[in-house]
Task: inverse folding
């Protein structure tokens, strides 16, 4: 399920989607998950056992160009599966080769991964 083109969802939309997932058989793999959906994974039990996540979109900032960028991160690749992201950092560069800084707190943004570190995450699983 690719939600990258869905810019936002209100609480009614999120609740409706959750109810749809409860009724469907099978499992689901989220790819290119936008920030608003990552935040749902982190504050609720929205991410059921039927669902896994392969990749998420994350916000970064480039001090050299003073621009913000959204980067696709794959769980198990750019984001290792860990129980704690307190001291976690990513060393990424933009297309021009300039350093990017995370524009989020990794221990908060990756909480859904840390709190479910035993799950079979992403990479086509």
Result:
């Amino acid at each position: 399920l690719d939600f990258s083109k869905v810019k936002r969802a209100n609480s009614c939309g999120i609740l409706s989607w959750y109810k749809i997932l409860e009724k469907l058989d099978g499992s689901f793999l989220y790819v290119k998950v936008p920030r608003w959906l990552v935040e749902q994974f982190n504050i609720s039990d929205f991410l059921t056992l039927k669902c896994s996540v392969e990749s998420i979109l994350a916000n970064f900032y480039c001090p050299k160009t003073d621009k913000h960028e959204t980067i696709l991160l794959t769980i198990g690749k750019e984001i290792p599966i860990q129980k704690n992201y307190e001291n976690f950092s990513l060393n990424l560069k933009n297309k021009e080769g300039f350093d990017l800084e995370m524009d989020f707190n990794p221990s908060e943004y990756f909480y859904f991964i840390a709190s479910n570190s035993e799950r079979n995450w992403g990479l086509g699983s």
Residues 12 and 18 are 10 Å apart (CA to CA).
